[in-house]
Amino acid sequence: LMFQLTATPASALADEPVHIRVTGLPPFQMVTFKASLKDEKGNLFHSKAFYRANETGKVDLEQDPAFGGDYVGVHPMGLFWSLKPERAFQRLLKQDVMASPFLVTLDLYDSVCFQDLATAQPTASQTLQRWFSGPGMQRMQIREGRVRGALFLPPGEGPFPGVIDLFGGIGGLVEFRASLLSAHGFAVLALAYFAYEDLPKQLQEVELEYFEEAVNLLLAHPKIQKSGIGVISVCKGAEIGLAMACYLKQVVATVCINGFNAIFTVPLRYKDLVVKPIHSFKEHIQIHVSGAVRICHCMEDPRDELNRQSVLPVEKAQGRILFIVGENDECLNSRVYAEQAVDQLQSHGKSSGRMLMYPGAGHLIEPPYAPLCYASWSPGFSRPILWGGDPAAHAAAQEHAWEEIQKFFRQYLSPTRSKL
Ligand SMILES: *[C@@H]1O[C@H](CO)[C@@H](O)[C@H](O)[C@H]1NC(C)=O
């Protein structure tokens, strides 16, 4: 018997689909697919799924359903988005985005393997390279003025549409989304704002001038378009992203993924303006059965009269805003916040805000095929934080949202965009 396992392309960007198929199996043979990956810290992630060959001895993950394992049904990329950490509460994050890809090993077993696969011998294997940067891309470490980050440039002279990428409470410099977006033709600055190099160790306040400096740095770059800057942001980063949209006229297209519509926890400062934060209450923490904590009930409602002064004036935003909401976000009441922001825009007669809601998606909506991280350790917390999300629905949201984000930036960052 000659099994033939094919997975193509063998080397691709991490957000590109892979076509997996097997031929040469006995008719109706049950098989197990296993995927495994080791991150740069040595943490192991794996997934498996059971399939049955048809009468011609073939399995094609684009057409055939999994009967069991980490997912069921037709999910061509299920083995990727259902990767789970061997040690609980680890989050898969690519660190060095330029020099190496993630290596995903696919193993095929000619039976249904429920037990530990470590000792079983696969009948076929293939290793796939999943890259977070494209050929010819450039990464430039940024240490200019106060700005700390990494700028990714596509190959060629440009000018390219410029985007700033902001993560949240994780701190430090997170590059994988910026580099992947840059691989699609954008100049993207992954911007650190605390817990990195000489930046403050903890976020004591959000000083908007720091972010304005980063915007102006991009606008002065010869390979970046002058017509305005985009922002892609998540969680606390999306609160800052929304503040940038409100107060910085150079920011013309902002993507806020599961963020806030008001200033929370630490004050926002911009020139003479100081916006006081809405406080949170630790005693409202809920402990989930997994041992992780649900913090979404700790934050007061920005609609309360006392909190009005902390709500961001979205109606002042000159540009477009795309709110991306996972309806199973267990970390923030992001749907309430986004709805409130869009309502506030509409009550001022503005249609510049749009909301994409994803049923079943959790807090950490990332580029496609990134495995769902349901809960993980986060700096400053003594327990893991619950992020939420149903794996299949979350994966579908990531695929859809990533396309929409790119369309949004292409439409509103192009120099010929309508000024009306
Ligand atoms: C068997 O599966 C292959 C791959 O999915 C498909 O192309 C073929 O049409 C199937 N054959 C039958 C008889 O269903």
UniProtKB/TrEMBL annotation:
Task: Name the residues annotated as catalytic in the UniProt entry.
Answer: C235 (charge relay system), D329 (charge relay system), H363 (charge relay system)
Tell me which InterPro entries the record gives: AB_hydrolase_fold (IPR029058), Acyl-CoA_thioEstase_long-chain (IPR016662), BAAT_C (IPR014940), Thio_Ohase/aa_AcTrfase (IPR006862), Thio_Ohase/BAAT_N (IPR042490)
What region holds the Acyl-CoA thioester hydrolase/bile acid-CoA amino acid N-acetyltransferase domain? 15-144
- Which keywords are on file for this protein? Fatty acid metabolism, Lipid metabolism
Please give one Pfam family short name. BAAT_C
Q: Which GO terms describe its molecular function?
A: fatty acyl-CoA hydrolase activity
Which biological process annotations from GO are given for this protein? acyl-CoA metabolic process; fatty acid metabolic process
Report the domain of life of the source organism: Eukaryota
GO CC, alphabetical: peroxisome
Q: Which residues form the BAAT/Acyl-CoA thioester hydrolase C-terminal domain?
A: 206-414
Output the PANTHER family linked to this UniProt entry: ACYL-COENZYME A AMINO ACID N-ACYLTRANSFERASE 1-RELATED, ACYL-COENZYME A THIOESTERASE-RELATED
Recorded family membership: Belongs to the C/M/P thioester hydrolase family.
Q: What is this protein's name?
A: Acyl-coenzyme A amino acid N-acyltransferase 2-like
* Species per Swiss-Prot/TrEMBL record: Loxodonta africana (African elephant)
Taxonomic lineage:
Eukaryota, Metazoa, Chordata, Craniata, Vertebrata
